Structure formats: C-alpha cells, structure tokens
Amino acid sequence: MAIAANTLIIHVLGDVPSPVVLGWLKDAWAPRCGTVDDAHGDAVLNPECWKDRSGLRQVLLFAVLWLLWAVLLWGVALVVLKRSQRNSKARLSVQA
Length: 96
Fold this sequence. Notes:
The protein has helices at 2-15, 17-29, 53-95, and strands at residues 35-37, 43-45. It is mainly alpha-helical. The protein has a domain at 2-68. A two-stranded antiparallel ribbon has the order 1-2.
C-alpha cells in the first residue's frame, strides 16, 4: 500500500503538473520559440526563436535546479536514518 501511495503522489505532484509548469515558463521566458505557419501552411519553429536563447536556458536551469531538491532531501534523509540507526544501536548496547 505504501508503494502504491508513493507512486500516486509522485505522479500527481510531479509527472502531471511538470509539463504544464515548464511549458508556462517557456512561454513566459521564450515567447518567440513556438510554432508558426510557413508559406505552405505547415507548422514550423519560429525563425526568431534564436533570439530567446537565454529564456530557453533559464527554463532548463529551472528544471535542473528544481531536481536539486530531490538530491538535497535524499541527503537529509540519509543523515537522519544513520543517526537513528546509531541511536538504536546505542540503546540496545546499554540495555544488554
């Protein structure tokens, strides 16, 4: 049950909203990087997209830095777990 709840939370809080959030940021920070119709009516990348390079880089940087939270929280969890194990061993040795 815990694994199912974990998987559900990961999808609801991560996989579902992340494309929407990153798309919104891309639209805000790199507005010229969308599709436009060419002379034949085909959808192509806007030729002025190169002018929004810094905006695209900011979106990618945001995504990478957001993932840094996971690394930091795993590190904190490791420290807490090791401390808890050390305290449990100390209590067991005192009781013995």
